[in-house]
Amino acid sequence: MIKAVIIDDEPINIINLQRLLQQYCPTVLVVQTATSADEGAEVIRRQQPDLVFLDIQMPDKSGLDLLKSLPAPEFELILVTAYDQYGIQAVKFSAIDYLLKPVNVEELQTAVEKAGIRIIEKQQHQRLHNLLHLLRQGPQRDEHRLALPSLKETRFVYTKEIIRCESSNSYTTFHLDNGEKLIVSVSIYEYDEMLTPYGFIRCHQSHLVNSRFVKSMVKESGGYLLLHDGTQIPVSRYKKDFVRNALL
């Protein structure tokens, strides 16, 4: 899914574009909209979208003013306007495409397809950068990042931020130290070997725990790990000695 934001001072234009995207571009998920440049800048900072549909001609500040105000935009851009004279400026801002209102469906689909290709290329580049960093630096617990793919995005999370991983069938839930939960459609088995060098312990068939968050190993109730946040993680009977040694 492509995480997108629409910025246009006319609400009816936003509604129409949302309808076209839902009907003809199902890979695009509009997470938020804005009706002014200032509001749009705040939405972009908050949502960190992959793609922005931006109207150029708006009251007070134009879409181009908004672009100039952003320090280092990382999103793909599709400019949407009723004014053809802005086409050259759109090219200067390296817009992925430039659409005139009323929006043509085929042109919209082509623009979204181009944006999707660029977004995938960025993600692949980031994954390669992550791999090269790991190969050059070795298993440094506080610096390595893990790529966690979901329907909406690929998140890059430092191993030190992961409290634990919990398996449910073919899905794995990552519990982060900020309270966030990330669900990926990858089995926990694939992360076991990957995270072990960074202090993670496979204490149970369904649980992988970051040892830095373990407070104690409790013997009662069959045995479990007590984490600093109060969470109790079961320890398999045959893994008790292994877990105890790993925590020393």
Model description:
This protein has 248 residues and is α/β, with parallel strands linked by helices. It has 2 domains: 120 residues, Response regulator (Rossmann fold, 3-Layer(aba) Sandwich), CATH 3.40.50; 110 residues, LytTr DNA-binding domain (OB fold (Dihydrolipoamide Acetyltransferase, E2P), Beta Barrel). 35% of the residues lie in helices and 31% in strands. The strands form 4 sheets. It has a 5-stranded parallel beta sheet, with helices on both faces. Strands 10-9-8-12-11 form a 5-stranded antiparallel beta sheet. It has a 3-stranded antiparallel beta sheet with strand order 13-14-15, with no helix packed on it. The longest helix has 33 residues. It is elongated and about 70 Å long. The mean pLDDT is 86.
